[in-house]
Design a protein that fits this description.
The complex is a heterodimer.
Chain A (H helix, E strand, L loop, with lengths): L2 H11 L5 H11 L3 H20 L9 H18 L11 E2 L5 H4 L19 H17 L8 E7 L7 E7 L7 E7 L8 E9 L6 E7 L6 E6 L6 E10 L10 E6 L1 E2 L2
Parallel strand pairs in A: 1-7
Antiparallel strand pairs in A: 2-3, 2-9, 2-10, 3-4, 4-7, 5-6, 5-8, 8-9
Chain B lengths: L6 H9 L3 H23 L2 H18 L10 H21 L5 H6 L5 H21 L3 H11 L5 H8 L3 H22 L8
Helix pairs in contact in B: 1-2, 2-3, 2-4, 2-6, 3-4, 4-6, 6-9, 7-9, 8-9
The chains are: A alpha+beta, B mainly alpha.
């Protein structure tokens, strides 16, 4: 078989021959076993492509949307005052008031969205640092009841940390969440922390929202009540969005009882 | 005129916030990413979202790219696979327990199939991305845009015979790459 025929076979198998040429070639295949075999070989390659990539072109203007999103991200740091904490220090954020947070995933009613501006963070941080240090030094709630290794979802694979539960049988139980390598949320988004109790029928409960002022985050949050907690999840939420989990998770993990 | 700069050089420029360089990479790989996303997601709108996410992620993470670890094309289709799988899982399980599919996903049969499909799509896309630029361009214009060889020749201002040759060489190369990338046609699976 010469190069011209092989070119023809490949172009035909890919569907790149004009219809008339394609029909003429199909007629020839019955009398030319070598050419037919060559076409079949190339068709199997094209089938392989079809198994992994749909034959469809991205819409015109899609890249402009990408640029718009980038513009939004570029604009964001300019709008925010500089973080109060040093980059190496854990960055602490204030969450929403507990009463506002105690809403089940499917419970109707708007959830108040309070995203703490970075500038307000420092004054809050001082108080929260004291609590966080107390927890880690053993003079706070005491021994953790359960602990979860927290790992980022595939999209946020670098995020990692852990979560600890204290006093889960009491009304004033707490969750301490430490995260590292947390990316800044996209423009108009913030993060929200959720927990799941075995008694909740699968409904997650929001326990606090935050916008990180750095890549390290440490939060101490009030639990919604006594219970057997299964898991923690950090979601990405639109500012002013609905009370439901957005379905997009930053990170999460399952609790294991501590010894 | 096709841009002659190599991918790694373009990523360096993207890291310096050069969106023209990002556009060149989009023109090279956008259709591969989109086609892969659409195959995995089966939904054009989600595939668009996935493609956007991949190129925003490229812009965001360009400074972290290490040329010694992976080719840009491999890196991009890897991001696309994970993003598409994430979108599929999220769509499949809107949840009373949204993280369940994410955190227990690997234990469910559906997820295993999804990951396998994602791996296959990633290998195919990566193999296509490895083709010499001229071959890849001819192949993708025919494959994604459905152009005939004469339309491609006109679009690229090269002789018709050259286009047919490039298409044949591209398919030959993919056939050669099949063992390396563990590619199988639908009929073989």
């Amino acid at each position: 078989m010469n190069a011209h025929d092989r070119d023809l076979a490949a172009t035909h198998a890919l569907g790149a021959l004009p219809p008339d040429d394609s029909m003429a070639l199909e007629e020839d295949l019955g009398e030319n076993a070598a050419l037919a075999s060559e076409v079949e070989e190339y068709r199997s390659v094209v089938q392989t492509l079809e198994g992994g990539m749909a034959r469809d072109v991205p819409p015109v203007g899609l890249f402009d949307v990408v640029l718009s999103r980038i513009e939004e991200e570029r604009a964001r740091p300019a709008e925010a005052p500089a973080p109060a904490a040093t980059p190496s220090a854990p960055t602490l954020q204030r969450a929403e008031p507990v009463a506002a947070r105690r809403r089940s995933l499917f419970r109707p009613g708007g959830r108040r969205r309070v995203v703490v501006p970075f500038a307000a963070g420092f004054a809050v941080a001082v108080a929260v640092v004291a609590i966080a240090v107390a927890v880690s030094s053993g003079t706070g709630p005491g021994q953790a009841d359960a602990r979860a290794a927290v790992q980022g979802t595939p999209e946020f694979a670098t995020v990692h940390g852990d979560a600890r539960l204290y006093s889960t049988s009491a009304d004033d139980g707490t969750l301490v969440l430490d995260l590292d390598d947390v990316p800044p949320p996209a423009a108009g988004k913030h993060y929200e922390v959720w927990v799941l109790r075995r008694s909740s029928g699968g409904a997650m409960e929001a326990v606090g929202a935050f916008t990180p002022a750095g890549s390290r985050v440490r939060l101490k949050l009030a639990l919604p009540g006594p219970g057997d907690y299964e898991a923690v999840d950090v979601s990405v939420e639109p500012d002013g969005g609905s009370a439901s989990h957005s379905g997009l998770s930053l990170a999460g993990g399952h609790f294991e009882p501590t010894a | 005129m096709p841009d002659e700069r190599d991918d790694a050089e373009l990523v360096q420029l993207v890291a310096a916030d050069d969106t023209d360089a990002l556009r060149v990479l989009y023109e090279r790989y956008g259709s591969i990413v989109f086609g892969m996303a659409q195959r995995l997601l089966g939904d054009r709108q989600l595939a668009e979202e996935c493609t956007q996410d991949v190129f925003v992620a490229l812009w965001r993470s360009a400074a972290k790219y290490e040329p010694g670890r992976a080719q840009v094309s491999t890196w991009l289709v890897g991001i696309a696979k994970y993003r598409a799988i994430d979108l599929v899982r999220r769509r499949a399980a809107r949840p009373s327990d949204p993280y369940a599919e994410i955190w227990r996903g690997d234990e469910s049969p559906d997820s295993a199939e999804l990951v396998a499909a994602g791996d296959q799509a990633e290998r195919i896309a990566a193999a296509v991305a490895q083709l010499p630029p001229a071959q890849r361009e001819a192949l993708l214009l025919a494959y994604f845009e459905g152009l005939s060889h004469s339309e491609i020749a006109e679009r690229l201002a090269v002789p018709l015979g050259t286009i047919k040759g490039r298409i044949r060489l591209a398919l030959d190369r993919l056939r050669e790459l099949a063992p390396e990338f563990a590619l199988h046609s639908e009929a073989e699976r």
